[in-house]
Amino acid sequence: MQKAILSKLTSNHSHFQAEKLLKHVLDSGDLARARQVFDKIPEPSLYSWTDLITAYTKQGLPHESIKLYSSFRDKSSLLPDRVLLLSVAKACASCAHLTKAREIHEDVVRFRLQSDRVLGNALINMYGKCKFYEGAQLVFDGLRVKDVISWTSLLSCYVNCGLSKRALEVFGEMGFTGFKANEMTLSSILPACSDLKRLSSGREIHGYVMRNKFDENPFVSSALVDMYARCSSLKHAKLVFDNVPRHDIVLSNVMLSAYFLNGESGCALNLLDQMSAQGVPLNYESWNTVISGCVQNGENTQALELLAQMQKQGLKPNHITITSGLPACSSLECLRTGKQIHAFISRNGMFEDMTCTTALIYMYAKCGKLEVSRHIFNMMPSRDIVAWNTMIIANSMHGNGEEALMLYQNMLNSGSKPNSVTFSGVLSGCSHSRLVEEGLRVFDSMSRDHLVEPDADHYANLIDLLSRSGRLKEAYGYIQRMPMEPTASAWGALLGGCRVYKNVELGRIAASHLFEIEPDNPGNYVLLSNIFVGAKLWEEASHIRKLMETKGISKLPGCSWIQVKNKVYTFSVGDKSNEQSDKIYKFLNDISDKVRLAGYLPNTDFVLQDLDQEEKEEALCNHSEKLAVAFGLLNLNGETSIRVFKNLRICGDCHNFIKFTAKVVGVQIIVRDCLRFHHFKDGTCSCKDFW
Ligand code: ZN
Ligand code: ZN
Fold this sequence. Notes:
The mean pLDDT is 86. The protein is globular and about 90 Å long. The chain is built from 37 helices and 6 strands. Among the domains are: 62 residues, no CATH class; 97 residues, Serine Threonine Protein Phosphatase 5, Tetratricopeptide repeat (Alpha Horseshoe), CATH 1.25.40.10; 127 residues, no CATH class. It has a 6-stranded mixed beta sheet, with helices on one face. The protein is 67% helix and 4% strand. Helix 4 packs antiparallel against helix 5, helix 20 runs parallel beside helix 22 and helix 28 packs antiparallel against helix 29. By secondary structure, the protein is mainly alpha-helical. It binds zinc ion (2 copies). The site of one zinc ion has 5 residues, from loops. The site of one zinc ion (ZN) has 6 residues, from helix 37.
């Protein structure tokens, strides 16, 4: 029937009829069919263009909306109006497509619509989603008449960009100019206070909330509870919560999270009981919060009990329950719980649920069991984008850049469309394996072939890739050409490269930016000081260390841990608190001679104190990762590999030492530092000495 109408269309059927049919098909929700109808209309009206563009965004296909708008601009003789521009601005917002967002903004200016407030607000919101605060501020400044939505969108943009201080300033300016914050403004600004841990500002806002009677609004009170909880003021979170006469499920769940965040699992479980007693229908959300909360607080047994309890009440744990619990199992201590949940998934036939399987893949990868992840991934009957991304990231984490690239290729071949996360995974994989040309190619193809605009993280990945391979000038060039403000990770990557390749000049530049962006991060000072030490610029190195002292910044203490027979043992530098300390130091002494024979040379660049050579070598011997490795090797219990975890970056000398140790003792040693996994075997490391 419709086919008949379609063919009629081509033969001069009235324009009106065709557009009516399009509207009808669009209402039925059949987008593919609607597109066919649309494509047959010789010159679609502005309404038809707008309707189809809007429909794409509504159905979660913003890229299609954007493409269609481009062809509208190319092919149609019509000019866009505010409704069409509003619609496509929403599309750009929902997929955070900065390049297109800028084009839409240009069109708004070109067609003299820049003083339209509603459109302006949509542009501010769009730039906010693209994390491009410069654009949002520009649109905002250009609006002759502003309303509370303009102000709220602007400050949300700053919150979204992580510029919480600026967001609070905007909030202040808003008050000065006489605008009254509404519930949206309040729930948007409160996270800025949590982010800055600025309890005083949070309290002021709370005062405003009380004075203006917003305290019964569920969004505002939830944001307040969350703010107090994140500023470690659980007492006040509880007061706000108790003041709300009726607790809806959203607010109750925020309170549950607040308890867990502050380590009060007991209170959380009490609240859960109260909720069931008061007949508040416990939804999956509530169960999931408590189960993942328990796991996060290390109460794995409790979590598993709750899982059982939930089933008894007739609620079958769904994939969200599983996936909210599993990621928390990714620390070494939780591998056991992770395995139990794995068994649970198998028993309950939940393997068909892709989300569960994907969470398992990630959990095993983070626990250092990449081979299990690979096995589960290969068994999946079909894979969605999240599954592909997870497996790509898993490989990148373990330094298997080649495999990450191969998976990416397979993913493209299977017809899946890569998204922003995919590219972060692939690029970081390339960077850990020094696949420079491949990485550059992937980066270039992002917006050209896949319509994914590189964001600040992708740039940081690329800069990391170039820096690790010693192409520091090129990396610096990319930083200078970034369309957004370079982030700390971008400068940090350059600084890291400068340490490895001993580039003092660029190191200074990178560090000076880092000192501005994150003045309290000790890592930057240590890296710069190491660069100076490497170049034998002792005075400058000691100047940096003095700077740290005067600013009161202390180096985060390094620690490493290892699990032996279900117990976790932690070591700090020079630690002698372990029962087997004597054995550990003797072992390190003995192995030192053996690894030296195998070719290991201690690299004393990593010791900052002004000691003589022999003392320096001794100082290297007591780094936490060496102690943990020695302890692991002394307590092998027949295992052929050991797994050590470290909170900071592994030091260069320990890296070298462990490489040779793995060769001498013939045991595989896996070290996860704060950046990645290192698999040491037969005298080499999977990171190929770059991390
Ligand atoms: Zn070390
Ligand atoms: Zn390594």
